[in-house]
Design a protein that fits this description.
- The protein has about 450 residues and is mainly alpha-helical.
- It is about 45% helix and about 5% strand.
- The chain is built from 16 helices and ten strands.
- About 50% of the residues are buried.
- InterPro entries: SusD-like_N, SusD_RagB_dom, TPR-like_helical_dom_sf.
- It is found in: Cell outer membrane.
- Keywords: Cell outer membrane, Membrane, Signal.
Length: about 450
Amino acid sequence: MKTLKYIILTLLITAVSITGCEDNLELEPEQSLLPEVAVSSPANLQNILTGIYDEAGQVVSYGGQINLASELLGNDTDLSWNGTFEQPAQLIEKQLVPDNTFVRDYWLNAYEVNNQANIVIANLNVFDDQSERDRVEGEAKFLRALVYFDLARLFGQSYESGGGNSQLAAPIILDAVLDPSDITSPSRNTVEEVYAQVIIDLQDAVSLLPDTNGIFADRYAAQALLARVYLQQGNYAGARDAADDVLQNSGHSLTATYDGAFNNDGDSSEDIFAWQITSQDGVNQMNTFWAGQAFGGRSGNPDVSINGSFFSIFDDANDDRSQFFYNTSGGTATTKWQSQFANIPFLRIAEMHLIRAESNFRLTTSIGLDPLVEINALRGRSNAGALGAITLQDIIDERKRELAFEGFTLHDIKRLQGTVGTLNYDDNFLVMPVPQRERDANPNLMQNPGYGN
């Protein structure tokens, strides 16, 4: 893929050296290490791996714009876009064009993450310590799986649990590129093929990663992401068992209050994995778009406001989640993204409860907890009254109440085969176009239907 010409430059940034003379008065010019040197030691490879987290957490990806895309594309009447940027306006209007820069930049970022992960995986022989090698490989495969999963969900039609899935997603590139002469121009792989690669990588990550790994991905982060993938596929036994493993063994638990799960400077007990933000590093773009100006948001105050129709999902006035909002001159804002330098929760233990409850209900099993007990535990955390019995719709509604504005809306509509206004879940305009600059560089990239030739 011609895009990778730009990706190679990011590798060179990962290892920079400044050499001084003995008197410290004359400095050598700042230089990047040659690629073969950058991958020649465990320390250098670890630096590249750490850089991948930073790359994936950029504003164009998991720092905010991927979540924004799902929420706006999946929106009918619950949200309004008050901002001045045309790109998100195209998302909420379902009128994307192939040169939309939000779409372009996410595609580019995903393949930057992918190539750097491939570089790490291709050079694991520099490690003598097997446990260190396993950890690094597991983290790289977790990150690679992450971006391919969302490439498939955003650029391909939804996964159909009945099989087939020959609809096009994104090219799978597993070879590391360190030299522009090695760049190829691959065609798009199918949704089935991309999901298969995602599952292989995540299963490997589960077996390779340690149970704990600080702020980085560990075994249970990989298992939690695998539960999410299985749920999207309609593989309820796989989703249930993966979520149950996380709930039983990870040591993570629901925060005491709903408020405690958000706007945290460090990871809460509920965070299986979160994108790390500080005042010196990282940007919480969720705050940029979803918060009022007084809390760091843009001039739309907020750019994304919540409309009255959203609140119809609440069935108990005492539910803390129904009050997790504040008013601004531009409309109602969610309190979830109120802190400018808070971490961005990505895999929460609450999601695992919802996955296990839904999967158990569909399969008429009670692995871990009975679905009614599990849903009532979530409701109790938010001071919502207990239910005496539940239906599948009750579980779906609970999921909407718990996970609102966290990037699930479009993907849940697709897996549940719902609608967005008058658009069916498989409408062409609920799939992103392949960026035009990529097609200009690579003639083998077929465009999605509805976006021209």
